[in-house]
Specification:
This protein is mainly β and 408 residues long. The protein is built from 3 helices and 21 strands. The strands form 2 sheets. It has an 18-stranded antiparallel β-barrel. The protein has a 3-stranded mixed beta sheet with strand order 8-12-11, with no helix packed on it. β17 and β18 form a beta hairpin.
Length: 408
């Protein structure tokens, strides 16, 4: 009955919107991907309907972004990514409701951009507009000359959506024994469990920069482990994984400036109270709390009509202990090359994450072609290299895909 109601809602919605003079746009997309190994099985077959509903009335505006993911072999997913109201004053804007909040300057990396949690159902392969989830809360923006002050309050915690434990994108455990993965522990919706963030941003003639701080829940759960040990041999025989969320505080910022033909950007954050897995038996449930830094420096340049960009990213655990499962300094670079052809109807793009610690990578060549107004064809591949690390763990998930998209 619920799915029938949803379909009826989507069918009658355009008629209602026309009557109310509300702007309606969106897209329909077919997305098919096939693995290059394992008998060329499909990695995904997805049909998407995405709607943007907007209306402006003097000092008030609204937006809603409902969407449907339909799969031939599993239940249809109907949800609302954003649904909020804007109220405009002379120098203050207030946004109330479910909204995506994007901070920072990084491409493809989340450092200060942590307010909107991530949907990692397909690892990092979705468009970033779909990876970022909406959060329910209130955002106040105060404008003063070239400066902006933003304050965000989230009454309810929204965690990252992790891949299914039996799916191809679930992170590889470092233990080879049988493991039971339980559902993450819920965070009770209450005033004391709410989250708060603040940001100051300024646009100058020479530099744009942001400063931010937040008191929040870590969107990614720490994996608390309960080990089963054979009392006679003292060998590990089994594992129970209990994902659990923890509070953390952070502060950071980002900047962007030009240096002749180059664009230089940077972003960094200090996280206080993040949890990491450890093999040290003195720590209960194999987790230890540490502070850490996450930062990047990047350059962007246009050469022979190619947009070229590179970033160096480092995650550094402070007061490091050798028993921690993660390296003390985890280094990654990203590379982007993009160019338009045929009067901007054809676009070639190559984007890559390269892990320096484990010599692994995710290489993403893509081709976009505008067949006609609003009608786009995309062909691409996701190639994983290495046998360890964030990307090497998915070495068997190399895939090619095609997307056909009509925007209206």
């Amino acid at each position: 009955m619920r799915m029938k109601i949803n379909w009826v809602f989507m069918l009658v919605l355009p008629v209602v919107l026309t009557a109310q003079e509300i702007n309606l746009n969106g897209y329909v997309r077919q997305y098919t991907g096939a693995l290059l190994q394992s008998g060329n099985e499909y990695s995904i077959v997805q049909n998407t309907l995405n709607l943007n509903i907007e209306q402006n009335r003097n000092k008030v505006a609204l937006k809603a972004n409902p969407y449907i993911y339909q799969y031939p072999s599993k239940e249809m997913e109907f949800a609302v990514r954003e649904a909020y109201m804007d109220i405009f004053f002379e120098s203050v804007d207030v946004r109330i409701g479910k909204q995506q909040i994007i901070w920072g300057k990084a491409d493809g990396v989340f450092i200060t951009d942590i307010i909107s949690p991530k949907d990692l159902s397909e690892f990092l392969l979705r468009d970033f507009s779909e990876i970022r989830m909406g959060v329910t809360g209130a955002k106040l923006s105060w404008y003063k000359n070239d400066n902006t002050f933003e304050f965000v309050w989230l009454p309810v915690f929204s965690p990252t959506i992790m891949p299914a434990a039996d799916g191809i994108w679930f992170p590889r455990l470092k233990y080879t024994v049988p493991a039971t993965v339980n559902a993450p522990q819920d965070v009770t919706a209450s005033l004391e469990n709410s989250e708060a963030f603040a940001k100051f941003s300024s646009m100058r003639s020479l530099i744009d920069y942001e400063l931010m701080a937040g008191f929040a829940w870590d969107d990614d759960p720490a994996m608390h482990l309960i080990k089963q040990v054979d009392p006679q041999t003292m060998q590990l025989t089994g594992l129970t994984v209990n994902p659990q969320y923890h509070r953390l505080a952070l502060g950071g910022g980002s900047f962007s400036t030009t240096m002749g033909p180059l664009v230089l950007r940077g972003e960094g954050a200090y996280y206080h109270g993040k949890y990491f897995n450890t093999a040290d038996p003195k720590y209960s449930k194999a987790v230890v709390q540490k502070n850490y830094l996450h930062y990047l420096l990047g350059l962007e340049h246009t050469l022979w009509n190619w947009k070229l960009s590179g970033q160096f990213i480092q995650q550094a655990i402070l007061d490091y202990e050798k028993t921690i499962d993660q390296d003390e300094n985890e280094n990654t670079i990203t590379l982007l090359a993009r160019r338009d052809f045929l009067r901007e109807t054809l676009t070639l793009e190559l984007f890559s994450y390269i892990g320096l610690n484990n010599n692994d990578a995710l290489i993403r060549p893509r081709l976009y072609y505008d067949l006609s107004d609003g009608f786009e064809l995309q062909l691409g591949a996701n190639i994983f290299t290495g046998d360890a690390g964030s990307f090497g763990q998915y070495d068997e998930n190399d895939m090619v895909y095609a997307k056909v998209k009509y925007s209206f």
